[in-house]
Amino acid sequence: MDPCIFCRIASGELKTDFVYADEFAVAFRDIQPQAPLHVLLIPRTHVASLAEAGDEPLLGHLLAAAARTAATLGLTDYRVVINTGPQAGQSVFHLHLHILGGRTMAWPPG
Ligand code: 5GP
Ligand code: ZN
Predict the structure, then answer these.
(1) Residue 22: CB within 6 Å of ligand 1?
(2) For a disulfide at 102, which of 24, 36, 41, 61, Cβ 3.0-4.6 Å?
(3) pTM score, two decimals?
């Protein structure tokens, strides 16, 4: 059994409703939403973090897919966040883009 929770979600082993899916990425709702709309977009392949993602076409694809996911959700204003490393708040070590929207966002982030 794959120990990576997001690999298990991407493969379909853990039943999850995808709000967006394509050949390279899937998006689903965060289990602990930090905004009225809070979705995680992940590559189907395992990449531990942004720091270890050398695949530039994949990274470009993920950003474009994040915009498509936000549009699918009806968001015009939203924030995309990639926590990288424990000190930055990364707790799941499979690259994921947080897409947050549906409320006013503060800056700087905490
Ligand atoms: P990080 O803290 O690594 O930037 O973000 C990980 C996110 O994954 C957190 O917002 C957390 O709520 C979410 N998360 C962790 N486990 C699961 C899960 O099993 N299902 C879903 N949908 N979200 C998860
Ligand atoms: Zn993984």
Answers:
(1) no
(2) 36
(3) 0.97
